[in-house]
C-alpha cells in the first residue's frame, strides 16, 4: 500500500500517531505496527502469524488463549497501535489498568474520534 491508498477504515494508509508508525508495509520497515496472535495450537498460531505478516503487520506470538485477555477490549494492547518493540511490555501489564478503562472511556466527549480512543488507551498504559 502506498501513502495514497486508503486503509480499511477509508483513511490514508499512514496512521494518526507519530510518523514513525505505519501499517501495510513490508517486514523490516521501521515503525511497522504489530498484531499479537494467541491460540492453544502452536501450528495455528504460526499460520495466523504468517497471515498477519502478509497483510503488512509484524506478528507477535502472544501465547495461549488463556492469556489472550491481554489483547482484547480494555486491555493493555487494544487500540494502542504499538510496534514490535513496544508490545511485550504492554502485554506484561496487569488487569488493574484494564479494569480502569471503562471509566476512562465514559469520561471521553460524546462521539469520540478514533484518535481520542487511541490516545486514551495509550495514556492508560504509560
Question: Radius of gyration in whole Å, from Cα?
Answer: 15 Å
Shape: globular
What is the terminal separation in angstroms?
30 Å
| Mean of pLDDT | 82
Output the number of helix runs: 4
Q: Could you name the ranges where pLDDT drops below 50 across 5 or more consecutive residues?
A: 1-17
What is the number of beta strands? 2
Helix content: 25-40%
Which structural class best describes the helix and strand composition? mainly alpha
Give an account of the 3D structure.
It is a single chain. By secondary structure, the protein is mainly α. The protein has 4 helices and 2 strands. Helix 1 links the parallel strand 1 and strand 2. The longest helix has 13 residues, at 42-54. Residues 1-17 have low confidence and may be disordered.
Describe the secondary-structure layout.
Elements: E1 34-37, H1 42-54, E2 58-61, H2 87-91, H3 95-106, H4 114-124
Parallel strand pairs: 1-2
Short descriptors:
single chain; mainly alpha; two-stranded parallel sheet; 4 helices; globular
What would you say about this model in short?
It contains four helices and two strands. The chain is mostly helical and 126 residues long.
Amino acid at each position: 500500500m502506498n501513502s495514497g491508498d486508503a486503509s480499511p477504515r477509508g483513511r490514508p494508509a499512514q496512521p494518526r500517531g507519530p510518523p514513525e508508525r505505519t501499517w501495510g508495509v513490508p517486514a523490516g520497515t521501521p515503525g511497522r505496527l504489530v498484531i499479537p496472535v494467541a491460540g492453544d495450537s502452536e501450528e495455528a498460531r504460526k499460520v495466523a502469524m504468517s497471515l498477519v505478516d502478509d497483510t503488512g503487520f509484524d506478528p507477535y506470538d502472544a501465547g495461549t488463549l488463556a492469556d489472550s485477555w491481554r489483547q482484547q477490549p480494555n486491555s493493555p494492547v487494544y487500540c494502542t497501535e504499538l510496534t514490535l518493540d513496544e508490545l511485550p511490555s504492554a502485554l506484561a501489564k496487569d488487569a488493574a489498568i484494564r479494569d480502569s478503562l471503562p471509566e476512562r472511556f465514559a469520561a471521553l466527549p460524546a462521539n469520540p474520534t478514533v484518535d481520542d480512543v487511541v490516545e486514551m488507551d495509550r495514556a492508560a498504559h504509560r
